[in-house]
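job 3f2a | input accepted
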Amino acid sequence: METTSLYSYFLAHPIISTDTRNIQAQSLFFALKGDTFNGNAFAAEALEKGASYVVIDEAQYQADDRFLLVPDVLTALQDLARHHRSQLQIPVIGITGTNGKTTTKELIHSVLSQQFDTYATRGNLNNHIGVPLSILSIRPQTEMAIIEMGANHVGEIAFLCGIAQPTHGLITNVGKAHLEGFGSFEGVKQAKGELYDYLASRQGTLFLQSDNPFLRGMAATRQIDQVVTYGFSPDNQLTGQLIEASPLLEVRWAENGDQASHTVHTQLTGSYNTENVLAAICIGRFFGLSPEKINRGISGYAPANNRSQLTKTPNNTVIRDYYNANASSMAAALENLRVLKADKKVIILGDMFELGNESYEEHGKVVAEACSLNASRVLFVGQAFAQHRRTGAEFYDTTEEASEALRKQPVQGALVLLKASRGMAFEKLVELL
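job 3f2a | predicted structure (433 res):
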C-alpha cells in the first residue's frame, strides 16, 4: 500500500495504536516488531479491542480488508509521519541535547501554550518510533509543535529531522553520554550537530546558548539563516541570571537593549536548569509572547517526571533526578548540591549506563567529587561504582541492597540527592526516605 493511500485511512482514523494493551477505539494499529514480539500476531486482537484497521507486513495474517498490508510496518509508520508533516504549515521546534532536552521541551510547551495551541512530544517518545508517533499526533488545529529528538549513534538525528522537518531548533548542550554508540565526545558533537546541519539546509532558525563554547563552535561552522542567542553574558539577545536556588530557582531576565528586567519564580530545582529556563523565555519572546505570559508559563510548570523534581517526604527533602544519568549530568547535580544550603546532606548515586570505554574513569570521577562534598552520608549503588570502593562511603551492588541499608539505618532530616540511570530503579528508594 502506498503512503498516500495509507494517509487517507489515517485522516479518517487519526489515532495511532501500537500496543494491544491500550487500544483506542477507531484507531489505526501498527503491528510493529521487536526483539521478542511480532506485532502481526496481535493484529486480530487489536481489531477485536476496537481498532478500525491494522497495518501489517506479513501476508499470512491478512484475514480481510481491515488488514492493510505494507512491505515493512516501521517504514510505513515513518513514511506516513513524514507525509503528514509535509501537509502542516506550522512552526516545528526540534530539540536535542545531552541533558535537559525533556525539561526544556516541557518549559517551552508551558510558555507557548499561554498563547498558541501547542503540541509537544509526550513523555520521552524521541526515537525512530516515538518521533513518528509524535508527528502523527499533531492535529489540524495545532498552531505550533515541539518535537524532542534523542540519539545514541551518529546519523540518528539527521534521520529524525527528515521526519520532523523542524523549522526552528535548539541543542541544549553536548556532553559525555551514550559513548558506546557515539564512540567519543567528538562523536556526540557530530551527532547532535546534525540538527544544525538540517536547519542550515532549510533556512531554519537556531536558538543558541552562545555562552556554551561547544555549541557556539558548532554553530559557527554552519551557515544557519537566523540565529537567536540567549545566555548569561550581556551580548546575548536574551540575557538572564540565577537569583536564588534554595532549592527552587528564581531567575531574572531581560532582552538586549531593554532597560526593564523581569523576575520569574520556578518550581524547578538545580541551578543547571537556569539555561533551560532562559531557552524557553527566548523562544517565547521570539514568537511574540508578553513577559507576563512567559513568566506565567515558566512558573506554572511543575516537574513530575523524576527530572529535577523536589519532593518533601515526612522525613526528608528529596531531589529526584533518576530518570537518566551521564557524566555531565552527574557533575551538574553534584555541583548544585554543593551550593544548596542544608544542615544535613545525603548523596545516593547509581550507576551511569552506556559510557563504553570511559565508564571506569567517569565513575571514578563521580566518586571523588561526591566524597569531597562533606555530606553526612554517601551511598553508591551498582557494579560500576563498586570498582571504586573507598572508606567514608557506602557501596552496594544493587538497589535492593541499598534499600536494605536504608531500612536498617534510616535517613532523617536531610536534603537527599537521588541520581542514577533509569535502569537502576531508584524509585524504589523514595519510599524509604
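job 3f2a | The chain has three domains: 3-71, 88-300, 309-430.
job 3f2a | closed
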